[in-house]
Design brief:
This protein has 175 residues and is mainly beta. It is built from 1 helix and 10 strands. An 8-stranded antiparallel beta barrel has the order 1-2-3-5-6-8-9-10.
């Protein structure tokens, strides 16, 4: 799974400059922002980066990777513990609807992996997993290339391991 995601990131990074050479309109985009993740048992936060390539005006592919920056502390029967967001990565197909020159709405679906670590009673346990992801959002461009992105993504973990909602706000740039 990780190899597939790394390959998708590499293809996105290589393809974006090639598209830019053949078409004066920006074809690639990247974003950097904060993601708030609310799961069945924990609420964490991460810094998220994305790279994407617009295949046409209405369809794109994108990859994302996050590194945890906010952990969730808990207490059970007077014993403290925590859930740490280690990292996550995912790949998506994105359908876009341009509303105006500055606003576009999108829906996306894909597959990802989240790594969480639970520390309780001196023991560390991995509690992450693979998930089918889907969501929606909007991009608002302040000028031709710089903008703000807001989105929601549901992570539906495999093997009945629960669900999580990810809310993101990011700076986005077309290139």
């Amino acid at each position: 799974m990780r190899n597939i995601l790394l390959a998708a990131v590499a293809v996105s990074a290589i393809a974006a400059p090639a598209f830019a050479q053949t078409n004066p309109e920006p074809r690639g985009y990247g974003s950097l922002g904060y993601t708030h993740l609310e799961g069945d048992n924990a609420t964490t936060g991460a810094v998220t980066g994305r790279l994407g390539v617009n295949l046409n005006r209405y369809l794109a592919v994108e990859t994302e990777a996050s590194v945890g920056v906010k952990d969730d502390d808990f207490t059970v029967a007077g014993v403290d513990g925590s859930i740490k967001h280690e990292w996550d990565a995912a790949g998506y197909v994105v359908g876009k609807v341009p509303v105006s020159d500055k606003l576009e709405l999108f829906a996306r679906g894909g597959y990802g992996h989240t790594e969480l670590k639970q520390e309780f009673l001196g023991a560390n346990t991995d509690v992450g997993g693979d998930s089918w992801n889907y969501g929606a959002g909007a991009n608002y461009y302040l000028d031709g290339v710089n903008g703000v992105r807001a989105d929601w993504t549901r992570r539906d973990y495999r093997d009945d391991a629960g669900e999580a909602d990810a809310y993101s706000v990011s700076y986005i740039r077309r290139f």
